[in-house]
Structures are given as C-alpha cells and as structure tokens.
Amino acid sequence: MLVNILTYGFIPELNLYGPKTNVKITKDLYESLVRKGFNIVLVKPIEVEEIIPVVIEEPIIEEEIIEEIQDEETYDDEEEYESEMEEINLENFTVKELRAMCEEQGLPTNGTKADLIERLS
Questions:
Q1: In a domain, 65, yes or no
Q2: Which residue(s) pair with 41 in the sheet?
Q3: For residue 92, is it left (φ>0), alpha (ψ between -120 and 50) or beta?
Q4: 9 in helix, strand or coil?
C-alpha cells in the first residue's frame, strides 16, 4: 500500500526521515506505525471514473483565418479613409484615443488635442 508520511523526524521502522510521499509499506507496518502515533495517510488510488476527459479545440484552419481578415474593414485607397474620417467627429474622442489613431497612421503623437485633430483631418 502507498502512504504519505506526514510526521517530521526519523522513523526507525522505515529507516527514513519524514515527511515523505508515496512510500510503499505493508498493511501490518501501516497499522503498527499508526498505533505508535505516527501521522500517516493512505494514498488514494485514482479511479478511472475520476479522470476528467480533456477537450482539445480543433486547430484554426488557414481558410478561417483568411475569412476573418477579409471580414475586417479595409480601405482601397486613402481618399476612402479620409472621407470616412471626415464623417467622424474627432472632437468626441479623448486625447488618448486620438494619439492611438495617429500612431496607427504613422503620424506624430505629441501635442494638444487640437494638434492631433488637425493631423487626423
């Protein structure tokens, strides 16, 4: 039988120092050590029913990735992007958001809110 020995110190019957895990001993020795006051716990074997199956997600197929990219909004030319940006009121954005927009377009990100809006317009 397998046991975990929780007692600290030397255990002469086993000729080892505790604590130790997964020590193989006989049933008689286990009972003797428990009677002597050693703190020993039986290791419970894992039952087959206790094993939880793991579900592995299917890998993403290259075609799915391509579809996702195609679904993203893209602009054919700079004029199309600029016309959409004109429809958006940049005053409603925070400085942090405006800086992020500038960074995406490769524009300088320093300056005041008015400077950022001017660069994006």
A1: no
A2: 4
A3: alpha
A4: strand
Q: Block means of pLDDT (10 residues each) for the chain, length 121 residues?
A: 81 83 84 85 66 62 62 62 66 86 88 88 77
Report if residue 39 sits inside a domain. Answer: yes
State residue 56's pLDDT score: 61
Q: Which domain holds residue 18?
A: 2-45
Q: Is residue 68 part of a domain?
A: no
- Contact status, residue 116 vs residue 99, Cβ threshold 8 Å: yes
Would you state the pLDDT for residue 82? 65
Cα distances (angstroms) measured from residue 71 to each of 46, 67, 68: 48, 6, 5
Q: How far apart are CA 18 and CA 11, in angstroms?
A: 7
Query: Where in 1-121 does DSSP place strands (E)?
Result: 2-11, 16-24, 40-42
| Termini Cα distance of the chain | 78
User: In this structure, what are the phi and psi dihedrals at residue 29, rounded to the nearest 5 degrees?
Assistant: -65, -40
pTM greater than 0.70 (yes/no): no
Query: Is the Cα dihedral 92, 93, 95, 99 positive or negative?
Result: negative
